[in-house]
Amino acid sequence: xxxxxxxxxxxxxGRPTALKYIEKITENxxxxxxxxxxxxDKSIVGGIAEINGRPVxxxxxxxxxxxxxxxxxxxxQPRPEGYRKxxxxxxxxxxxxxxxxxxxxxxxxYPGIDAEERGQAEAIAVSIRDMMGLKTPILAVVxxxxxxxxxxxxxxxxxxxxxxxxxxxxxxxxxCASILWKNKDKAKDAAQHLKLTAxxxxxxKAVDRVIAEEDFGDEFFEKLKNDIxxxxxxxxxxxxxxxxxxxYDRFRNxx
Amino acid sequence: xxxxxxxxxxRKPNIALEGQEDGNSAFVPEQAAIKCDKCKTLILSxxxxxxxxxxxxxxxxxxxxxxxxxxxxxxxxxxxxxFADVVGENRLGFPEYEDKLAKARESSxxxxxxxxxxxxxxxxxxxxxxxxxxxxxGSMGGAAGERITRAFEYAAEKGLPVIxxxxxxxxxxxxxxxxxxxxxxxxxxxxxxxxxxxxxxxVLTDPTTGGVSASFAFEADIILAExxxxxxxxxxxxxxxxxxxxxxxxxQRAEFLLQKGFLDAIVDRRRxxxxxxxxxxxxxxxxxxxxQPATDTEELA
Lengths: 255, 301
Ligand SMILES: [Zn+2]
Prior knowledge:
heterodimer, A: alpha/beta, 2-enoyl-CoA Hydratase, Chain A, domain 1, eight-stranded mixed sheet, 12 helices, B: alpha/beta, 2 domains, seven-stranded mixed sheet, two-stranded antiparallel ribbon, 10 helices, 9 strands, 16% strand, binds zinc ion
């Protein structure tokens, strides 16, 4: 597959969205709403669930599957209150020493008037900074589109995993092509050059693990669940200072 | 003024968000006089410089280079540059990137989009950095992110406050994911610096958008902005394309952000130094003379 074919696949209809992962991988998901400041963003879902009996805080950017759902979820483009809700739930997780699991799937944070008015930049900035110091394990899994700062806003983690046809990029190939070459048709070239595929990202150390998708069958979810569970087993043994130091170093070393 | 000032008429500003190519036209050229973008008054270049590149008539803030900014707030207009050896490279083998870097270096006279230094301001020692619009519109790639990260780490180690001038039109897309990761890296350094109880003051300048606004620019203890600066996450062009309507006047300007609660204050550039000195004083920063003599510059570099 070319890079652009992978981009198309990462956005494909029918691809499992965050809620599907939550349903398949966790038990007893109890959704928690609201940022306690302004409202409840529908693009980011969060709550407490269990994985193999361990309580975890789960957060996901949800795109929706049907057209109605997509509109309801704002096509997975969070507003500031989404990032503030996510951070609220992460701080709650920290208090109770629960690990945090984030599913990332967004074309980007919402570029709208209301989002700007309510401080989109500030919301993402504070989330990134505070995730860096969160004293509980964090795992982020990019499951579809990892769209720029809007994705990073919930992806400052001890490890970042990605499924094999998901992407993670600083800018969409279409926007890149139109800015650099004033030509959207060059998106294919841009996709190639941006090095946004799972394999390229692994090489650049932006992701730590690439997950085989196995057509998203039951074995895929079962294996991912067990991998996540053992990841949290390992990270839970570290004391908080060591954990945050390793997280800092992970990002510090990307030059 | 015995010559025709009109031939020095200045081109309209054209701030390119993300599209860094167009970013150079809004600068004051080395000409005798410049027309103010806002009130259209002709100003002698020397007068403008003497007034901190602010129009004496209407208060319009002209663009200022990174080095110029650091000098402007430093005592005796001098500072010790840090991390100048950290420079960018074409990590992804992105087409035309080397050319763009070369052009940016030529037009800005800088080796990267951010200049860092140790300064003395009102007798206080601080680490400061400023971003330069002439260098690919202040976009943050691996080298710029590394310089800013080191600035915070250096300040944390030396127990110094940080003053940062943010400016960015968008991502350094030629560095792909490396560029995005600088948001996390710089944020981590801000956090560590802050955990030591040290002060960080951010000054948002025109424009501060994209990954820079969504990372270190908005993570400071005190967030100031210059009047009329464009500040936001998405650039206005992107928003207009998304919502398919024109944005209201003043949208995403500093005055708008102040009203919405996202800035501590808007400070006229001509009062910025005294404001910063006052903030440092209120945070118990020690004067450098009493701390140690300024002979330890050999540790820098
Ligand atoms: Zn004027």
